[in-house]
Amino acid sequence: MTIQSGLSATAADQLQIHNASGYLRLATAATLTLASDIIVPTQNYNKVAVQSSTTDTCLSITGTNVTDGFVLILVPNNTAHTITFTDTATPAAGTLSLAGDFSMTGVGATLTLIYTGTDWVELARTPGMTVGKVIALSMIFS
């Protein structure tokens, strides 16, 4: 596909690639609320909210609108809450293949995953931080 300078290509208004400026832009984050330790993504960039209280766990991600290669970026909806994404030892449909469990909390916390057609594999994570802390980033490639 060729995109003329100054024009953009869109896919369901979720992703825009601007050739002239050289940047990638995702739609404004939608909010996903955990239900029975599961989230259902509606687009590539999402805020995750706890079901109740201030802590919750995510064991699985399901959705009919995702296909092999779907990249998912997750951030906390409330930076004072903690959401723990749980690594699965044996990948199965919708499970998470992570570099260990990840507690997402605080400003700047992110988790980026890619769908393999079966499970979700971690691409990167950024822990929440406070001013003056070094940002740690883990990358997983299989």
Question: What labels would you give this structure?
Answer:
single chain, mainly beta, seven-stranded mixed sheet, three-stranded antiparallel sheet
Helix content range of the residues, please? under 10%
Give a short account of the largest sheet.
7 strands, mixed
Query: What is the count of DSSP helices, taking H or I runs of 4+ residues?
Result: 0
Could you say how many structural domains there are in total? 1
Mean pLDDT: 81
Task: State the gist of this model.
The chain is built from no helices and 15 strands. The chain has 142 residues and is mainly β. Strand 2 and strand 3 form a beta hairpin.
Describe the 3D structure.
- With 142 residues, the chain is an all-beta fold.
- It has one domain.
- Helix content is 0%, strand content 42%.
- It has strands spanning 8-11, 15-18, 23-26, 30-33, 38-39, 45-49, 55-58, 60-61, 71-76, 82-85, 96-97, 102-104, 110-115, 120-126, 138-139.
- Strands 4, 6, 9, 11, 13, 14 and 15 form a seven-stranded mixed sheet that branches. A three-stranded antiparallel sheet has the order 1-2-3, with no helix packed on it. The chain has a three-stranded mixed sheet with strand order 7-10-12, with no helix packed on it.
- The chain is globular and about 35 Å long.
